[in-house]
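Lecture 7 notes: from sequence to structure.

We start with a single chain of 272 residues. Read the sequence below before looking at the structure.
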Amino acid sequence: MEQYTKAAYAASRIITDAYSTSFGLSIRLFDAPLRPHIYAIYGLVRIADEIVDTNRKDDSKDVLGDLEQETYRALATGYSTNPIVQAFATTARRYAINKQLIEPFFSSMRADLSPQTYDKKKYDAYIYGSAEVVGLMCLKAFLDDESAYKKLASGARRLGAAYQKVNFLRDLAADADELNRWYFPTGSYESFDETQKQRIIADISTDLKAGRAAIDKLPTSCRRAVLLSYKYYQTLLNKIERTSAEKLKHQRIRVPDVQKVALLTGVAVRGK
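Now the structure, written as tokens:
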């Protein structure tokens, strides 16, 4: 079992590195014992995203449901023949990540299987399930202490929410054109303009500020890695703010790899 679980964590790392250069860079700054667990969390999230974003077939609902049920079985038994689920379940059992955090994630993933109209309540629920609980899962691994977890949970949620909202703005064109999605509870893709963009950015900035205050309270084992993710999303948000609303509707904004490496170097060397 030990050899299989080690291979399962390696598979999660491959999935992570293949899909996200920015997240892959951040993980390098975690203390070595933490890295497999963060890869495991991201690996499960990524393959669920894959089902709803790129599979998009008639059986997607069943495939997603199978993944969810396999995750719960592995959580109970400690074993799955799916290596990504095996890694996640091993981490979840180690850090008491339970269905209370996992169910909202899969609920948000199911919402992506069909067109949705989001009011404020549904928007908040989607962000909680798709992003905030992922931040809370990571926080469980960071702290392994329930008292500290409760103190920093709000900050972890706010960072997760901010990152997701930045992703919504970054992926505005693809979400609308390719996936027929509009997440924001006001306006529409057609009516999106500078006023709405600035209103969303102000909301994100409030979340980022609240999340930033919690980062300095994290253990040294994870603080620099989370700080790097914060700096990446702040940089991305700044680029989005400088980009016209009309351009956002047709082009995905990204941070160049050379700038990502510069952010990594700054945090790794100076810790800020």
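Residues 146-170 form the longest helix (25 residues). Keep this in mind for problem set 3.
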